[in-house]
Specification:
CATH superfamily of one domain: EF-hand
Oligomer: single chain
CATH architecture of one domain: Orthogonal Bundle
Shape: globular
Function: May be involved in the calcium-dependent regulation of rhodopsin phosphorylation. Binds three calcium ions.
Order of helices and strands: HHEHHEHHEHHEHH
Strand order of the largest sheet: 1-2
Distance between the termini: 11 Å
Structural class: mainly alpha
CATH class of one domain: Mainly Alpha
Organism: Periophthalmus magnuspinnatus
Family: Belongs to the recoverin family.
GO molecular function: calcium ion binding; potassium channel regulator activity
Radius of gyration: 18 Å
Bound molecules: 2-acetamido-2-deoxy-beta-D-glucopyranose, calcium ion
GO biological process, one term: regulation of potassium ion transmembrane transport
Number of helices: 10
Length: 198
């Protein structure tokens, strides 16, 4: 629902610390008005002012009722939880959202890399990519995509490493990832990147 903020032409009166809001106008590519609308939605969903992993899981299960989205929601939460403290506040949330919706291509790719790098050590391993792919397949559900077999996840991962792992050392670094993705835009689509599922 956050995608349509720009279409939502109504003005809102929200109680938000003006200094915080001005700082977010600088840090993100959202206008003050968009931030106010986002903040109202955020407070509505999460009156406590922070989102935890359970909230992510519950939101994703509503969007993907036919599958099991809990593992993907867990990975996604970790990517939003940049301070790694189990809670995503409004600032964390809109900074990621701004990158995803309004960032440059390199920004978006950097965000996706961080999502796939499950243990956040700076490289994507085959195991990490397999876990991500499986979580996406689980989320989509076997009934919606009956032709998906377990083998497809492995094929996706093989394909990913063949294209990305330039020096063949078994891991994909951010440099390898950016270089390959920026040369070949179709990779983004074929890898089922987050555009489809966030
Ligand atoms: C805002 O957009 C510009 C241009 O696309 C980009 O370079 C910048 O990184 C973006 N910032 C955020 C936080 O998304
Ligand atoms: Ca890693
Ligand atoms: Ca490599």
């Amino acid at each position: 629902q956050f995608r349509s903020v720009t279409d939502e032409g109504e003005l809102s009166t929200v109680c938000y610390r003006p200094e915080g809001l001005d700082r977010l106008v600088q840090q993100t590519n959202f206008s003050k008005k968009e931030l106010q609308i986002l903040y109202r939605g955020f407070k509505n969903e999460c009156p406590s002012g922070v989102v935890n992993e359970e909230t992510f899981k519950s939101i994703y299960s509503q969007f993907f009722p036919q599958g099991d989205s809990s593992t993907y929601a867990h990975f996604l939460f970790d990517a939003f939880d940049t301070q790694n403290n189990g809670a995503v506040n409004f600032e964390d949330f809109v900074i990621s959202l701004s990158i995803i919706l309004r960032g440059s291509t390199a920004d978006k790719l950097g965000w996706a890399f961080n999502l796939y790098d499950i243990n956040k050590d700076g490289c994507i391993t085959r195991e990490e990519m397999t876990d991500i792919m499986s979580s996406i397949y689980d989320m989509m559900g076997k009934y919606t995509y009956p032709c998906i077999k377990d083998n497809d996840a492995k094929e996706h991962v093989d394909n990913f490493f063949q294209k990305m792992d330039k020096n063949k050392d078994g891991v994909v670094t951010i440099d390898e990832f950016l270089e390959t993705c920026q040369k070949d835009e179709n990779i983004m689509q074929s890898m089922m990147m987050f555009d489809n599922v966030i």
